[in-house]
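for the record, two folds in this file. i put them one after another cuz i was lazy. first one right below, seq on top, structure tokens after. the second one comes after a little note so u can tell where it starts
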Amino acid sequence: MRNFYLEKSLGIDIREKSVCLTLLGKTLYQVDVLASEHIMIQSISKSDQKAESLFLEKVNRFIIEHEAWTENVIVSIPRSNITVQSFKLPSPDRKSVDSMMGFELERHFSSSLDNFYFYNHITTKKQNQYHIVCAAVNKEVAANYLELLKKLNLKTSVLDVSTFANLNLLLVNGEHQDPLSVMLDISSDLIEISILINSNLEFSRTIAIKEHGFQEVFLNPENQSEPHKRISEKVAQTLVEEIKHTLASCRNIDDSKSVDTIYISGGGYLISHLALRVEQESGVQVVKLQSPKSINQTAQSNYAKAFMTTSLSLALRELKKNPIEANLLPENLTTTKKKKVNVKKTVGLALATVFFVIAYMVNQNIQAKNTLTSLNKQLEEIKTQMGPLEKVDLEYEILQKYTKALNKIDKLNPAKFSLLVELSQIIPSDTWLKKIQFKKKNMELNGISKNASQLIPIVEQSSHFQNTHFVGTIITESTGEKFTIKTAIGTKE
């Protein structure tokens, strides 16, 4: 049975000679990897029509095959087209920082600032100093990529930076707690070295990989132990030397401090070999960047797991909150999207209401079969319509259907409907009700929660419920804690 997705998001990680696409789908309970593909291309330039045509052909095939049209399109372009600068500004408050930013940026850019789109990530304040990481892209370069994607009927909602995308993944996973660490992002022809101090990006640079045969083993899934071993050893040696040079060029690093951890992403099929060799060469622990454990990767068995780290992080931008919400595009160039509502709560309430109607009609044996038939028909219509939809706001369509259903239910039994409204207001956002039953003056709730034990006092605080307790034991599953709660209905004295 095909899953029902409230929202989809497409991450497009464009490199010099490749592009990786990852499509994610969001259900009420989780985020699924729907598809991912790593595609080799030629370096894209406005004058090279052949390279452009190749890009359009291969990406378009992916979009059609996986029905990847969505208003959530998050893109990163080759890191060589992005300038990243880090600096500190002494200032008494944030407002003053904003007013000083233009003067500071002029120090770092030789050409006019009017030629660039900027994103400034302002982080910690220490002793009246703000830490700023500025990413910039030439407007003409950005426009070329946006126009290219427009030819695929894709409008970019976010133009992110691969550096920030990888750092987001690191921070979201909660792995990074080191005073000084290094983050490596490895492409088939380029490596980015980033220095992190207390989770802040201090410095970032790119170097070309000139090792003969690297690209071949980078792309080859077959077990070729000798080529892998030889090339990974040489590249690891280069990496360690470049890390030393990069650290030496950072003025804000105390010479007495040593690197605690090296985080590595990308690397293709060489990733495991490289991680091992870099650890051996440097004597520093090397950790491979992983996708969040909450992401379900079993929905799609055939995908580009060895290449999708950055594109997956990009796709997550519109589905989950990220520490760094970078967007190089000004508001006039981004997709205008409808204001998001709490889909999980709204749809959860709607589904709970449907469950209530079913239970109520069975228990009370009332003559409302036509209403139930109509609701079931509407739910089936939503499921069948989700497949062919391409450029429709899915949330709006879902809520429109459920609104009609809720209006009918409200007319059937307004008293019980008000109880459901009360539940929707007090139940935490990390809790999802799967079934609600009314038994005389009692109500039974079945669902899943990240922290089920918190629910009893929350429900008891309501004036509508009393004598609230668990029925049976709490069962821990991968999606959360499964519970059954029974409560008496009635206004407290």
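(here's the note) second protein begins now
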Amino acid sequence: MRYPRFYLLIVGLVFAAFAVVFDTFPRSTFSPLEKRDLATFPSFTMDRLLSGAFTKDVSTWFSDSEPYRDHFMQMSMETKHALSFNRGEENVTFHAATPDASELTSNDAVAQSHDPEMQQYENHTADENAKISNAGIIVTGSGKNVRALMAFGGSSKGCVGYAQACNLYQQTFGKAVQVYCLLIPTAVEYYCPEQAKRISRPQYPTIRSTYALLDPAVKSVDAYTPLGQHAQEDIYLRTDHHWAPLGGYYAAEAFAKTAGVPFKDLSHYERKVVRNYVGSMYGYAKDVAIKNAPEDFVYYVPKGITYTTTYTDYQVDKNYRVTAEGKPHSGAFFQHYRDGHPGAYCTFMGSDQRLTVVRTSTPSKRRLLILKDSFGNAIPGYLFFSFGEIHVVDSRYFLKNMKDYVAQNKITDILFANNIFKAYSPNIYKSYLRFLSQHGVAPTAAPVTTEKSAPKTDKPASTSPKKSLEKATQPTAEATSAPSEPAAAATE
């Protein structure tokens, strides 16, 4: 009987230790692994108690905010990886709805009648060593070459609303403003292994059919072809859902050609590197192979040009609706992060939750407005040599009336730059339509400190509709004025 009692004692002590940890230690409030705020203790009302909502939310809070949550999750991932416990393809969830066959056929017919001269990409880059992770994520390769891809579940029918938004803006502003449509493919289009293609649809038909639906006055920008031509280069991040800054460079070059503006090659930029970067896909896929394959985050800062950046920050509520608008303040366009920092993609502008205006020394009267999601953040920095002013508006955060804004700022060009997942959303048309009709009056102004010069540090918010990725270490602002032009005031 001695041994059973001993084992019972050990088990009891283990359970007691867990009870002490889970019930007395400080509970987690933020997950760096998943890059999100964790559940908070719910508010109590008698109605919520009687309906069962209160007890359900308490249970969610208890499990979601357990002490050392990320450490336990990482241990679990390490164990699964070591034992090769991976989910099968049957657990894949598509990221877009699939229309019926009649819709697909009709829209493909439209696409065939209008060829934007895009070159369909033939995949020569995929690593065939693939597995399917949760949330529709394909993990390919091995060792330092691991790449995570978001499966695309849409058809050619999906971006009708996006095309309509582009058309509406061109009709609204007429000949005084030229509208461009840049639909950004994601990495899965260029790196999806053959055996995973049955769970991820091609994006080429969707882009073609979207451009076919554009008004003739709207100019489509073919970024698909140059990205395919450079797919052997590091144009997409392996560990993050975004493209790499180099991908943004080739897209910006394609746009500049379409817009007929000057464009400088990479010899006019300083190459910067954040080493040992692991992006968002580690938290999404929960696959330790991604963590074990860090990459270099490489970005490019323009040389020989001066520019100033002005920000108007937005406050948002828990549902990420804009509630207040701050006062304009100067800041750095480029933020530099320490090696290994997970927020490196916030290098550009530091946040999505702001209106950005860049004024350059380029002698051009053309003024560009970019309507974008987080993918579009990588584009403006390559256009400082092309436009006198660049205004950047995120599709989720904008309070002003777009008609008034375009007129007051003498905008000459509007670029829609959204990734295909964002463009596929039926809400994208509603967002851009709302910009045209909203009153442009902000609620109570957000408390923002006005800066007389570029700051030494800047706290970025998340590039996704989640809260800030950065809870501890902040980036340093890059000094970006040309050495030969030290007299330029307020240059970053």
